[in-house]
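Hi C.,

You asked whether I'd gotten around to modeling the 509-residue construct. I have! Everything is below, sequence then structure, no commentary in between.
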Amino acid sequence: MSSSKHSSALRRLALSVLQPGFVGTEAPDWILRDIGDGLASVVLFSRNIVSAEQVARLTGRLRAENPDLIVAIDEEAGDVTRIESATGSSRPGNFALGTVDDAELTEAVAADLGRQLRAAGVSLDYAPSADVNSNPDNPIIGVRSFGSDPDVVSRHTAAWIRGLQSSGVAACAKHFPGHGDVAVDSHHDLPSYPAGREEIAAQALPPFRAAVAAGVRAVMSGHLLVPAYDPDLPATLSRRILHGLLREELGFDGLVVSDAIEMGAVTRRYGIDGATVKAVAAGVDAVCVGGESAEEATVALLVEALTTAVTGGELPEERLAGAADRVREFARWSAGLRAAGDAGTVGTTAGDGIGHVAARRAVRLTGAARAVLPLTAAPHVVELAPVTNMAIGKETPWGVAGPLRDRLPGTTSVRVRGQELEEGTVALERCALEPAAGRPLVIVARDAARHAWMSRAVTGLTAARPDAIVVEMGLPGTSTTAAAQIFTHGASAASGAAAAEVLTTTSAG
């Protein structure tokens, strides 16, 4: 083969193992050109989405260049939503589903999501999170996990995969080998999972085994250090973890996708180009080039890094070719899955209302809450807003005030951030207690147990107003307060609407 032919063949191989995002609601020329040159996948984020019809047009235009193009999305439902980022998800997330613990319900919710994604032209969903949330202080997983019990997480991971794939959209179990027991957000730095192999086998791996048994054909690696398997390299860059553990021990022979390669956990040490080469060398087949760095220049840089690594002997050509083969095989399989899927209609959101049914079933009340409901007068709602991790879209609405206002016109609300309380620019007395004088007070928290300022605010407000109702939309803490409490187990729009329904219709009985 001549060197120019060889270099263009190498470039095709390099392009085929990237899964880049892009900016805009229409297909940019460079993406269309790269698809023509061998790019086999793209990933959509909320910045690409205005409406279901627009996404269907966008994916149709992309697939005009390659009918088997893998169109991926990072859509977990619940708190992490892209397809409904403007409105909040009409389906609850994993923690709510794990709380209900009805595998048939989980399967039905995922099938409903699958119909919506398939109608929009999506063929691969970077979900479900198969992480076991064994560390309640985890800043990145939390309500994205089905729970802290490996059996529950395994059962619902399998059900979610079956449901999604029954609608024609491929699932992707993440974040291998398990991101649930860490205390650092991998968007920013490298977390470590210090458990021994026996504990990992008992705690973190069962949901991934269940995912493989349920027919998952894609697994996403996590950017975390697992010293029991590899003391030096994070899972995404570790052959011992991706090949030794995932391929050989768990018997997975599908597509290995990296978590977004621009995340600080891997780029701070190796740069985005170095991390990409190391990931493919270690056994990643498709490199997700997600959020912030999705542009033509980044893709060109990574193609250059991969081809140079091959010609320089750092990356064996057969490893790159093997990754490209797996991508092609997955593309063919997912195109067949899409063709056979249970059709939805463009614009579907929770077609049969299953998302609302599931969110309502996940709501739990204390006895004190039952005694004071239903609310009959319009309340004042105080929403305590944490700084959320980067997986959760800043633009995604959440809370209870909006849906409560629909049910009780005259409902007023304020949203308070920790920084405002700490700086003294906002006082709870003025914004929370005074407007609530003579009327019901509803306090909405999101992971109060993880945020000292938030638990202090809840404690102070309930001391001043023992009749207040607290709605916790994150992980329930070990709260001993006697206050009336409602737990939604997630902050999706569906969960907010379910809380509003409970607040206005539940009475002791």
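If it helps when you're writing up: Residues 200 and 324 are 31 Å apart (CA to CA).

Thanks,
B.
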